[in-house]
Amino acid sequence: MSVIQASDAFMAAQVLDLVLSERRKALSPREWKHRLAGYGYNLMQSDEGVVVTSIRTGTQVCAVPGEMSV
């Protein structure tokens, strides 16, 4: 298991791929959040919608598409 730190658009795309892949595997939004926590990420609700943040630093990594709400 590796933690991806998004420093550019390519890295943000990799994180988004991971997030969407884990959503397909999860049976519920709660399980999805738990699976992402294992990679060091958290899902937060913001004014722009759902965003992925780093648990370690709290920085926003990327936005989650609207149809994939928590």
Could you list the spans in which at least 5 consecutive residues all have pLDDT below 50?
none
| Strand-pairing-aware structural class | alpha+beta
Please state how the strands of the largest beta sheet are arranged side by side. Answer: 1-2-3
Main sheet summary = 3 strands, antiparallel
What oligomeric state do the depicted chains represent? single chain
What is the percentage of strand-forming residues?
15-25%
Helix content: 40-55%
> Gyration radius, to the nearest Å?
11 Å
Strand count? 3
Q: What pattern of helices and strands is seen along the backbone? A: HHEEE
Q: Could you give the distance between the termini?
A: 23 Å
Q: Into how many domains do the coordinates divide?
A: 1
Give the number of helices.
2
Would you tell me the overall average pLDDT?
A: 87
Shape type: globular
